[in-house]
Design a protein that fits this description.
The complex is a heterodimer of chains A (302) and B (165). Chain A is mainly α and 302 residues long. Chain A contains 13 helices and no strands. Chain B is α+β, with helices and mostly antiparallel strands and 165 residues long. Classes of the chains: A mainly alpha (302), B alpha+beta (165).
Amino acid sequence: MIPNTDVNPDLVDHPVLSGGWRTLRHFLRTPKGTLLAIFLGLFAIAAPTAGWSVALSHMLAAVLGATGTEVAISLLDRRSSRFPSSAILSGMIVGFVLSPVTPPAITAAVGILATLGKHLFATERWHVFNPAALALLVAVPLFGTGQSWWGALPDLGWPFTIVLLAAGAFIVDRINKFPLVLSFLGVLFGLSTLLGRVDPVTAAEMFRTPFVQATLFLAVFMLTDPPTAPARYAEQVLIGALVGAASVIAEAFGGGQVYLLIGVLAGNVALALRRWFGQRQLQAGLNYGSQGFKLRSRRYET
Amino acid sequence: MAKKMPGRLVALSASAVATIYIAGLVSTQSAAQGAPLAEPTLAATASASASPTPEVVVGASATPTASATTAYADGTYSATGTSALGNVTVSVTVTGGTISNVQITKVTTKYPVSRIASLPAQVVKSQTANVSVMSGATYSSQAFKQAVQAALAQAQAAQSASPTA
């Protein structure tokens, strides 16, 4: 028998612990698990600037709001309970974007909105909108929330922006979304440069702290959300360009703090329409195929 | 699983994006360094409040000194400055005719409140609303300034309305 050197021998005789350890290791190797590990790392870096107690209570409020709603919906639907990893990630994004000094009740409410939005605007196979982006956009008129994007490490200097980029590149490579991210960034920065000829002040800020860190955070962690991001490279390039253009247009016309979110949601709508039309074409093709078979069979019958 | 984008193509594309970014950064350098070329549209809305509920408390205070003729009536005044990127609400306390305490009670701008955390102390020190525009927080700084101006305007109006003691 070949000894399994990966398993802590102290756990071998504990079936529950060893099973849990294996499950955890398996989860951490998945894209969601990898992203969760990255988010925990970002939190550990960013929390000291806001204060650990403030940051921890703020993040817990967001995560509990999102996961509590997910668990409640699962119970109501009488579905088998699964680990709410998506809700945890959405909650953490909400926590990273909202200012840490946002009242916990409001933070939790935005987390709840994220999960509700995911279930309300969904088909059988996917949900339409990025949950965190939709909730954060709605929260502005609803609760008057501010966004600081502190999870993007804007106050820690350029070395930490490199850390953000490196972590982002790792997960983007893992889920194969480089065309989407690069297309988005290229179009956004390119159009912002052109915007500089008309509105230099607005354009200037989009290349600087904290806007650029917010843009990078959104590009690598929110835009690439697999259920709401295209798989094919050609579609990734098109959707990425659309999101970049929509973001710049939103900013140019006074989108204010939500210009990036407007861009992401515009991309979500475009992808949803593309999928819907694609399904209709597929269904029409199937119907034609079945109809053709019927016509052939009648020919044979007569 | 779909074939991944070749590493060389990723590197090439990333370099192109970086070049575009640097071009934009350089071309907007003058706008970033100088005063805003176009004054943003700002509007201050004042709301008198005896005890505002703080959502953010970033403030500064000073020991009041009595003055024979004062421009401001004693009290606490709350006001909001609005900019294209969000609002800043402040609470200004006047004691003995001087600004004794300034607090940022609510921020809805894109920037973290830490970026303008030093502005309340400037107001208390200078005893005016004329504060520096913080680098990287132009809109927040100007919204703060508008809010303080509006709060002080309330204090002046209250002083004009009340009979001198």
